[in-house]
From TrEMBL:
Residue ranges of coiled coil: none
Membrane-crossing residue ranges in chain numbering: none
InterPro entries named among the record's database cross-references: GH, Glucanosyltransferase, X8
Topology relative to the membrane: Lipid-anchor; GPI-anchor
Domain of life: Eukaryota
PANTHER family (UniProt xref): 1,3-BETA-GLUCANOSYLTRANSFERASE GAS1 (PTHR31468)
GO MF, one example: 1,3-beta-glucanosyltransferase activity
Family per similarity comment: Belongs to the glycosyl hydrolase 72 family.
Biological process, per Gene Ontology: fungal-type cell wall (1->3)-beta-D-glucan biosynthetic process; fungal-type cell wall organization
Signal as UniProt keyword: yes
Protein's name in the database: 1,3-beta-glucanosyltransferase
Function: Splits internally a 1,3-beta-glucan molecule and transfers the newly generated reducing end (the donor) to the non-reducing end of another 1,3-beta-glucan molecule (the acceptor) forming a 1,3-beta linkage, resulting in the elongation of 1,3-beta-glucan chains in the cell wall.
Length: 507
């Protein structure tokens, strides 16, 4: 594993002067001042004029230095950034933010690369992508936390996706522990009155701190408030384990209603992020800016937001976090109509196992196959769906409700497809004409020296397709090497989208 040394970081001129924070229960503590830290933040994702295919405001040196001055004028202390490019350099921007006392909350997932809410999965590709963001940003002293998922479960029909989001949280927390890095990892969800309390309990519950979210943020919309000219979203975060009345509030209403969002007399608030900083043509925003341009136009909402922030009072009284032993863990609830997965969580995707199993394929997709090409994927998806009507494809499937996860459920799309193609190939006595997908117009690879699939059984956690997942998982966790990925921080990832997955709902 390659990591940046402290000497290397210091050689970049990166300051470590920002105050250290501690997340404990539902409170953030400033360990330098011994006071409670309240997030006074804003979502930061300027899009106007951004390079095609790359949304990364932290790589825009001109824009970032322009906006840091605005952040200082507003009096904010944190920003949330939804999309970044790990191949870009962020040193100048992160240094300027740190020197201004501004923390950064980074989303690990993006709309294109995330746990899908329908037919959900968490595979080695997603884990590697998330690791790359950890590698790129954990070197900075002002990282507030990592968000593993954003509005993935939105209703009762998408609850199962949370089992895979929680698996992603566990995967990244294991990776951070392996690297001896202490940065919180959490989840941000869309509030739905039917599932919100169960969702917050689910991400908070469990006796293993590596399997629970460190913070939880979500939206509560007040549809009874008349919308003003300028729309406002506010995302409030509470810190886990937390439940009961500790809800966050996000308003889509007039600016006046931020007053009750920032009512610090309420014990439920841990601060939050206004959505959003720049006007991206969606009716939100307090400024108008363009990528790479130093000019800025303050919108009418700017002054109102600044005024409200100036009224936020943080007590100077010294506060000290209680020890972890003081808190009891939140118990997971049993499956119920509002939360049918109970405490179920998907097993960790295992790169070593998936790479081993790929050597057992006798018929597999060629290197020229591009799963991010919609046409190629559509053809592959139909082929695999057709084959699985006559084959046992359970090893590539998963069902969080019944706690069933096939051996290859955490492997990549092309690995799952090649597994099914090999099943069909061997079924027809390895006849070359059966290792083909005519519509794909690509020659599939016949591997005459494929290994026996049993050669991969030695790998811990390989046999996960049983109902007693918990017993398997415990053995798996104890021997899990979160650094078994072939991708490191020095390797660029595929910049294409990853929005498709085999349509297992029809298999």
């Amino acid at each position: 594993m390659k990591t940046r040394s402290i000497l290397y970081i210091l050689s970049l001129g990166i300051s470590f002067a920002i105050d250290p924070l501690l997340f404990r229960y539902n409170t953030i503590y400033n360990l330098k001042t011994n006071t409670r830290f309240i997030i006074k933040g804003i979502a930061y994702q300027p899009k106007k004029g951004a390079p095609v295919g790359s949304l990364d405001p932290l790589a825009d040196k001109v824009g970032c230095l322009r906006d840091v001055e605005i952040f200082k004028d507003l009096g904010i202390n944190a920003i949330r950034v939804y999309e970044v490019d790990v191949t870009k350099n962020h040193d100048s921007c992160m240094k300027a933010l740190s020197e201004a006392g501004i923390y950064v909350l980074i989303d690990l997932s993006t709309p294109e690369i995330s746990v899908p809410r329908n037919n959900p999965y968490f595979d080695t590709y997603l884990l590697d992508h998330f690791k790359l963001k950890v590698d790129a940003f954990s070197i900075y002293d002002n990282i507030l936390g990592f968000v593993a998922g954003n509005n993935v479960t939105v209703d009762i029909n998408t609850v199962t996706a949370s089992a895979f989001v929680k698996a992603s949280i566990r995967g990244i927390k294991n990776y951070l522990k392996y690297k001896n890095i202490n940065i919180p990892v959490g989840y941000s969800g869309l509030n739905n009155y039917d599932i919100s309390s169960s969702s917050q309990r689910y991400f908070s519950c469990g006796s293993d701190p590596l399997e629970t979210a460190d913070f939880y943020g979500f939206i509560m919309r007040d549809d009874n408030v008349n919308s003003s000219k300028y729309r406002v979203n506010y995302n409030i975060y509470s810190y886990c384990p937390s439940f009961a009345s500790e809800y966050g509030i996000e308003n889509e209403s007039g600016i006046d209603d931020i007053n009750h969002v920032y009512n610090l007399k309420s014990s439920i608030l841990s601060g939050g992020f206004l959505f959003e900083y720049s006007d991206n043509g969606n009716g939100y925003g307090i400024v108008d800016v363009n990528y790479g341009n130093s000019s800025i136009n303050k919108l009418p909402l700017y002054a109102s937001f600044k005024s409200l922030l100036s009224q936020v009072y943080i007590s100077d009284d010294n506060v000290y976090p209680r020890p972890l032993s003081y808190y009891t863990y939140v118990r997971c609830e049993y499956p119920n109509p509002k939360w049918p997965i109970g405490s179920n969580i998907a097993p960790p995707p295992n790169s070593e196992f998936c790479n081993c199993i790929a050597k057992t394929f006798s018929c597999k997709l060629p290197p020229t196959f591009n799963q991010t090409d919609p046409n190629q994927f559509k053809i592959l998806d139909k082929k695999i769906s057709d084959l699985c009507t006559n084959l046992n494809c359970s090893e590539i499937l998963s069902d969080a409700k019944s706690n069933f996860f096939g051996k290859l459920s955490g492997c990549t799309v092309d690995q799952k497809a090649s597994y099914v193609l090999s099943l069909n190939f061997s079924k027809d006595n390895n006849a070359d004409q059966q290792c083909t997908i005519v519509e794909l117009n690509q020659t599939l690879v016949v591997n005459s020296s494929a290994l026996n699939i049993s050669s991969c059984d030695r790998i811990a956690g390989a046999n996960v397709n049983v109902n007693s997942i918990l017993e398997v998982d415990q053995d798996y966790i104890s021997s899990y090497d979160p650094n078994n990925s072939n991708i490191s921080s020095s390797r660029s990832i595929n910049n294409g989208s990853y929005k498709h997955v085999l349509n297992t709902a029809e298999l």
